Amino acid sequence: MKISLFKKYLSITMGIILIAFIILGTFLMVFVNQFWDTRNLNKAKEDLNSYVLLTTQALENKDGKLEVKDQETFNLMIDLSKNNSYNLIITDAAGTVYRITRQDKNIKTGYQMPYYVTNTLIKDQYYESEQKTDFFYSDTKLAVASPFKLKLTEGTKEGIAIAGYIFVCVPEHTINNELPDQIFQILIYAVLASVLVSCILAGVFSYTQSKQLKQMSEQAKKFAKGDFSGRIPVKGKDEVGQLTRAFNDMADALDKEESVRRDFIANISHELKTPMTTIAGFIDGILDGTIPESKQKHYLTIVSEEISRLSGLVASMLSLARIDSGKTTIYKTKFSLVSTIVNILLTFEDRLEEKEIEIVGLESADGLSVYGDQALLHQVLYNLIENATKFTPQGGQITFHAESKGDKLYFSVKNTGKGISKEDLPFIFDKFYKTDKSRSEDKKSMGLGLYLVKTIVNLHGGEITVTSEIDKETCFAFWIPNK
To answer: pTM of the full predicted structure?
Structure first.
């Protein structure tokens, strides 16, 4: 049988609460019983003093024997003991029982108290017992005793001496009955009320906690079907709240990743379709004779360029796939920065001369060494220089700047030109993003170069930024650890 998290959580919480209240109730009952026993003992001690006083007034010691001299006082003492639910035992100085308030199988007139009891009374002038014994009443739970003194009359001799002992015996049923029912009722009602309120609060709390987890489960099932639109309200800053916030962040990341995936498919379809259409059209034109033989070389050159672009696209996609999957390993070596830049510039020599672009600042990189993956950083520099060459106008300028500060290498490439609008700047490093929406000026771009640049820089533990002024210049700058 499947038990929901809410029921499981509620059952555990209620179980803990009930166990806690049972333990608390047990301690309270023990405490109340101990308190009540102490109270009864103290009351019995106080009443014992009163009975000792009444005994000295009601009895006399005549020729070594106890006799009642004031029957009214003696009866009053007996009545008081009955009203207090006490059983009295009066013995003479030798410990022989003289009077008892009621008959019992354990105690009778003429019974001899144990020696250690009378000896304790002589020594300490007091005796108490909190356990059942065979020399008190059979139902006695608590007994206190004290000697009483009388005027001794024996012939012509007189004096004050211990004439006997009086025992106040408290029956067990009296102590139990005297424990007020109200105390037990209050405890029971308090426990029941506390358990009820605690269970309600535990139920509300359990429902709230399990509700959020249930919502996560439902949203996760929707995620599995490709629906990333749902979010869960964050309530509180506890662990569940943090989990909810992390879940929503994950949903945002998945939604963005799904959007990127859709854009990726759309863009890659476009990037593949355009050159393939061009290639197919020109090849068909040559084969069916539509394109004259004199122009075939020209169109075959275009086909070759489109094939090269497709090859570059595939190479870039493979590089990104390796980096995104985490399978790319960085092999760091030390190499010359200026040599790398110069070699890249040589590949764009014809375009630089054709557009009469001025190169400035190469001397800042002279003598600087870079510590990183040479192949990957070559790709970074190549893409940035290619980008600058592409967008620098006729007679423009490309400026390089490099410097080493502490354990970091800083590099920037700046080119004059149209610049990038503020609306485009936040997305400039996104995959397949192009600032030229019409695809006219940059129709050969795949929108992967700058994304690849940022990915490689981040892979080295660095950062890259871009700044631009419209109709003036654009500057890409990055730093990487150089140790």
So the answer is: 0.47
